[in-house]
Amino acid sequence: MPGPLEGTSVVELAAIGPVPFAGMVLADLGADVIRIERPDPGPLASTFSQVPTTRSRRSISINLKRQAGVNVLLALAAKADILLEGLRPGVAERLEIGPDACFARNPALVYGRMTGWGQTGPLAGTAGHDINYLSISGTLSAIGPPDLPMAPLNLVADYGGGAMLLLVGVLAACAHASRTGRGQVVDAAMIDGSALLAAIVRGALAAGTWREKRQANLLDGGAPFYRTYRTSDGEFVAVGALEPQFFAALLAGLGLDSEQMPGQQDRPQWSAMQETLTRVFGSQPRKHWEEVFEGTDACVSPVLSLSESLSHPHIRARDTFLEMAGAIQPAPAPRFSATRPAPPRPPVPPGTHTEEILEELGYSEDDIGMLRQTGAVSGTFMED
Question: pTM for this structure?
């Protein structure tokens, strides 16, 4: 059946990181996403079949340094509900594809802009990556071992604070546009998003319950009942026994007498409690603890590798992953009861749908030939 975003048209300017992730989610949910590729997409294009974030798109290659190419993009924007771009501030305007140019063609367009620093501010025009946005927002200072702040892959700023907030923003703006007929610019910045995701930490800091010291707090590895432990075979288990009843189940599974253990919230005794749990968990292999805690509410789980996770019964039961083009990929999420989207389609080489899309825009065969000869577009064409 059609997904919840069936009938939604999206134009995505090819980028890296959060923009293609956002495009993937919109496409997974049923939107018609057209990805605008550069004429020379670079070495990463050869690995397209292995990149989940480029799946389920149609692709057209446009040279935005040619006026005819700019006109093609503006024609696409004229028919779109959403446009996504991840250029540095001012670049889209210099290319004459910025918000004003697009709104002149389509006043209801939602123009989603994804950057690290945002469209304004002293750092707006400078380069950066996930770790930099995390560091300036203060979020990175709370993550990692005591002696070293450590970025949690690029999940917090790029995807959580970037792509996810971009998605929320453009869908909210679409809801507004459907009511008013007026589009708008969505300025999604990874520095803002990474700060927003740390709201609970900021709240605890303001309340005096969070110490500005890593692994000294409830959720950062400081609490002995919310951290990982090494097992005797060199593997790990994750413990998340936050509530008292779960903590009691943890102690029972470990064979520890609760009467002889410090109180769960006795922070001065956390170090001693951690030493005890380290010793007990380290006395048996991971498989032993999996069997001990299976079916309990102790909130103890094995730390599975990326490969191991594929065979876990719960993962398999929910079909959390799928295989596509020879690669294992996460399945679309979330799930819908009434508008379950079609399975995702494999990624395609850049420019695969160039001619098809131009024909939909009303370009004649001669027009397409001229665009091709002048280098304004490239990609797949019917044989002459």
Answer: 0.94
